[in-house]
Sequence to fold (501 residues):
Amino acid sequence: MSSLKIYNSAVREKEVFESIVPGHVGLYVCGPTVSGESHLGHARPYITFDVVYRYLTYLGYKVRYVRNITDAGHFEEEGREAEDKISKKAVLEMLEPMELVQKYTNLFHWAMDRFNTIPPSIEPTATGHIVEQIGMIEAIIAAGYAYEINGSVYFDVKKYAATHDYGKLSGRILEDLLNTTRELEGQEEKRNREDFALWKAAPPEHIMRWKSPWGEGFPGWHIECSAMATKYLGARFDIHGGGMDLQFPHHESEIAQSTICNGTAPVRYWMHNNMITINGRKMGKSYNNVVKLTELFSGDHPLLEKAYSPMTVRFFILQTQYRSTLDFSNEALLAAEKGLKRLMDAYAWLQETPRMPEAARVPAGGVETADASVARLLSELPDFMNDDFNTAKVLANMFELVPVINGIKDKSPDAALMSEETFESMRSTLKLYVEDILGLLPDGSGEGEKLKGVMQVLIGLRQQARANKDWVTSDAIRNQLAAQGILLKDEKDGAMSWTLA
RNA sequence: GGUAUCGUGGCCGAGUGGCUAGGCACAGCUCUGCAAAAGCUGCUACAGCGGUUCGAAUCCGCUCGAUACCUCCA
Fold:
């Protein structure tokens, strides 16, 4: 079997994965900023790294998965007037930042649960680690790589770059940054334009504020990840993940801070997922093209023709290699929905069929025509996962198994013949990859025991009607069920199956 | 302007030198009371131009086009 290779953004090539501490993996993923609702674009990293987490766990590693919640900084609820922040209204009417944080954190957890992502081992919040962040900033100042001005603290990029490779991760050259940095407000007090904030003094109207050696203020964006990653994973850990748009400046700055503070580069393998685009454009607030997850699940958005289930979205994302851009459209999502249904229908039947049906059994002296190809398709799955988590190829192989499974199910005369061992191997391997590694769940929601019982009654009535060639009754049952969103199918041997539409 | 990535059939997308990706859509056939599903078959592409090579979607160069980042961003 092949060994796991990961594309390391820092060196721009695939490297064989070796954990720093044998048997253990430290995984850090930049989490959401909970000042607003998560959108489809946010779903990608969390689903991508959920699969990474699942696969590493399957490989036998004890993984500590840390994903932060960014709940400090500038906060403003969408649509809410900024003046609220400084109004002299009663406390209850004023914007309470933690109320927003709680609301959007809950919503985020709800969406992650629907996507069937496994919760991280630790989900630290920025506000819960102010002490650690202040400690880290003090260490950086003590080392001489940061300076305080007017209650704010900035990282001295120029000094750092003199002896370290600032820009290595993002492929940037410091001089270029000097010339191309945008004009922003509040930049005057920095020594150099490329310096970034470790701590910002809070203006009087700023509600989120903490005491620090430099006065009241709040931490810079980059320091929180460095502080929390260091605290829970150590000065040097295995994998750091996040969206490509975070590569610069966020991750570059993380490297600089942690390197000065801890005396070592923090991360062994950097992984960056690509963006989700709409009509070729990145999904983002500034482009005004975001589809929120709640809108996606409800279908309530001008760009959406219908609602799409969380599993459809998960499948849609996994059908693409995580380093490629993924273009969103109704057509693409619809295709994903249909494809997933086909895969999961075959999969569900296979899981309900513990023993190889007679019809597919190889007759005495017969040839196991399907054994070799099925075995090959199955044996390639770990190779694909080991090749930088190529879930697209894993799914492609699974789709090649679908006709094999359906052939057995339909007892078609030219059904693929295979040995009992191959059948069992197919069953257990698919369960492992579909459910445990890719995290795709059969859409069994709503199929309560009572509904199953009721369906059995209706199926019985319809079978009777069909036996009597009473097509009127037969069709009435099927059509009325369809109107209720239940699709009834006649199988080859007179049996019937049903699915919720 | 700087840096980087990408351009694959109607659509989405895998693929770093030779072998069918896969899904969806579409067409035909089989099965079927009808339907749906399923099975089989077909549709077979790599932006353009040069180069390297026995051989290139894959390597190199140029051109055209697109996107991302350049301190809000998954």
In short: The CA atoms of residues 321 and 390 of chain A lie 6 Å apart. Residues 449-500 of chain A form one domain. Residues 330-351 of chain A form the longest helix (22 residues).
